[in-house]
């Protein structure tokens, strides 16, 4: 019984250690990432309420707009399909928002089929290949960037990253960080599993 308890405690200790390591990766990558001038800017989608972009989506799109205006990229790929409760795709919502801010629609490329981060990146990579874009800046919330970077690398996207932290919604951001740690652990586990089997 004592031996079993020790094993349980060791297991909990290892789990806590792993959570700390992954949390550090998520936080450090999000805070340290810097955009580099690229062929395009990929803005990853987020929730749309009907046809109204959520605050997280607006902040991501505003960051993409800032980078575009400052000359970091000549085109913006807005990436995100139409989810439950959404009247239009996340990509379309971002395009409308950008056009309302004065961006020429010819500079905005829609990727409106994806329903996950991996699909965002796979479909965006396909667009990049068709347009002969070699490099990209990937924009999302800071907590999301580490996992997105692993997926981008997996898909062969040469990218830098720029993240946002939505200050008026700190609680939601905190929840995002909490959810991202197990999501990152799951990604590593599935990656390792696929290599073994």
TrEMBL record:
Domain DUF218: 39-171
Pfam entry (one): DUF218
UniProt keyword annotations, A-Z: Membrane, Transmembrane, Transmembrane helix
Coiled-coil portions: none
Presence of keyword Transmembrane: yes
One Gene Ontology term from the biological process aspect of the record: peptidoglycan metabolic process
InterPro entries: Cell_Envelope_Assoc, DUF218, Rossmann-like_a/b/a_fold
Transmembrane segments: 7-30
Domain of life: Bacteria
Cellular component, GO annotation: plasma membrane
Name used for this protein in its record: DUF218 domain-containing protein
Organism: Clostridium carboxidivorans P7
């Amino acid at each position: 019984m004592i031996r079993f308890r020790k094993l349980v405690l060791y297991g909990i200790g290892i789990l806590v250690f792993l959570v700390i390591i992954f949390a550090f990766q998520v936080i450090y990558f999000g805070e340290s990432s810097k955009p580099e001038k690229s062929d395009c800017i990929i803005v990853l989608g987020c929730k749309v309420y009907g046809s109204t972009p959520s605050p997280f989506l607006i902040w991501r799109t505003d960051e993409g707009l800032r980078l575009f205006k400052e000359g970091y990229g000549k085109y913006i790929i807005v990436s995100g399909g139409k989810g439950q409760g959404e009247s239009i795709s996340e990509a379309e919502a971002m395009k409308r928002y950008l056009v309302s801010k004065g961006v020429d629609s010819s500079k905005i490329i829609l990727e409106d089929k994806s329903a996950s981060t991996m699909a965002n990146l796979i479909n965006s990579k396909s667009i990049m290949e068709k347009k002969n874009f070699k490099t990209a800046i990937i924009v999302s919330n800071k907590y999301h960037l580490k996992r997105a970077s692993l997926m981008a690398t997996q898909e062969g996207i040469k990218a830098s990253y720029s993240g946002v932290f939505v200050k008026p919604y700190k609680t939601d951001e905190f929840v995002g960080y909490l959810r991202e740690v197990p999501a990152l652990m799951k990604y590593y586990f599935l990656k390792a599993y696929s290599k073994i089997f």
